[in-house]
Amino acid sequence: MKRIVSMLLVMIISFTGCSSNSKKVQTSETETAETAKTTEVSDSDEKVITVMISADLNPELGDPTTSGTDFSLYEMIYEPLVKYGENGEYVPALAESWDVSSDGTEYTFYLRKDVKFSDGTNFNADSVIYSAQKWDAKSFSSPMTGIEKIDDYTIKITFEDNCYPCLTELTYPRPYRIAAESAYDKNGEFTMMIGTGEWMVESYIPEEETVLVPNPYYYGEAPNVDKIIIKKVEDGQSRVMALQSQEADISLASIPEDSMSVIENEANLDILKAEGTMGFFLMFNEKNSILQDVNVRKALNYAVDKESIVNDLLDGQGTPAIGILPQTVPYVTESNSEGYEYNIEKAKQLLSEAGYEDSDGDGFVEKDGEKLSLNLVFQSEEYSSWKSLCEYLQSEYAKIGVEINLDLKESAAYYDSIWTNRDFDMIIYRTYEDSWNPHGFLRSMFSYSDDASGICWSDETLNQYLDEVVKIQDEEERQAKYDEIFKLISDKALTVPLYYPLREYVYNTRLTNLVAAPTSYESLEWNLINIE
């Protein structure tokens, strides 16, 4: 019966663009996916992998200086000067090596001489200059003040101040990747993704699927497969059914926790697990007067049983959070991220000290006649486990007399809540990952200016610390400053850390040589994957 239901659902999925045994191929590179005529292509002898994601899938918007499509495309098509490797090590990419001046403001990069873009044009110093002219010079932790061509394969980038994260920022999936000049029209407008990476776009249907094939000019090891079809599948259960029916080979997007037992019982499916650098946490709206009381924020921390979240709700698929970032992130230590234990009585005591009591016996506390009621916003398109997690938090907070109203939003509206209209009291969010941690994430969430508040919280001392730490070159001094930063975030209960998820990729066992890449943005070492 399970197989019959699965196949019926897959039939529905196929009509919504989840998968198909044929591909739509553009008849002209200049035609858009909507207007292109299509032909049926045989799969006969090709090694083809079908991958599912849940994020935006728009290669026509894949300018490396913007965020128009899923990170996986940026990683597979474009390359940086320097890559972010295991344990945060810098790894040569388009630059074979580099030097940093004694004052930390000048970076000289020595470029590879055997690189071509996927359209066959040469990569050299002029290519870097062309891309760099499109970068926002002020987007670095220290403004970029110049880029100079020393010779055909040597460039020098100058920054305003000594700032250690500048090299790390060059590893990001965007906005500092290198695209071919031919990726833009004569007016400098982006037209197509043309990079030096292992893969190139063969065809696409916006927000439905993108077909990638190997870059014939790639200088490194050639991939083992002939084609990767990336499909956007937003619904978690649809992803499960597509995997069961073998309509898809890999899901980079999360699988609903209540479906993991189904996956584990499928003989043709397995799960690749890797330790991650991301954390899930609750963000507060600092404009909410209730949450401006530190005792309320601390109470909301003490009331969360993180061990139960991981062991009972997630069946052990993660690590209970202590601080906002896991210890897989540079500068995060056990001593600077002590966090809050689960202590219901302590939470109730702190609410009482803040003036909240259950005066009418309805189970919820009030102050000045107003019930302590908070709106918790979440989405489930990207992280399917968030729905059950937020329902669990609702029940946990009821134990200390706090009413939680759940507000499930579509992904676009959810992000608008964070970045635009701020229509939440609390919202579940995730930290950034890999090379963005810790400095990029912390500055994005907590830095503020006279013109804009912090996204997560505005604290004058924390803002000062974040400005100071990026300018510290000495490693021990930098660690000491990060100790102060993480301790302040914890002591003032500026967030509610929940848990650190594992990186999990469900895949069909017909695939071999699956290896987790150093970063979640790459996901997998795509060139190593093969088919039995």
Automatic annotation (TrEMBL):
It comes from the Bacteria. Keywords: Signal, Transport. It holds the Pfam family SBP_bac_5. Its main location: membrane. GO terms for molecular function: peptide transmembrane transporter activity. Residues 89-451 form the Solute-binding protein family domain. GO terms for cellular component: ATP-binding cassette (ABC) transporter complex; periplasmic space. Residues 1-19 form the signal peptide. It is a lipid-anchor. It is found in: Cell membrane. SUPFAM superfamilies: Periplasmic binding protein-like II. PROSITE patterns: PROKAR_LIPOPROTEIN, SBP_BACTERIAL_5. One of its GO terms (biological process) is peptide transport. Belongs to the bacterial solute-binding protein 5 family. This is Nickel ABC transporter substrate-binding protein. It comes from Lachnotalea glycerini.
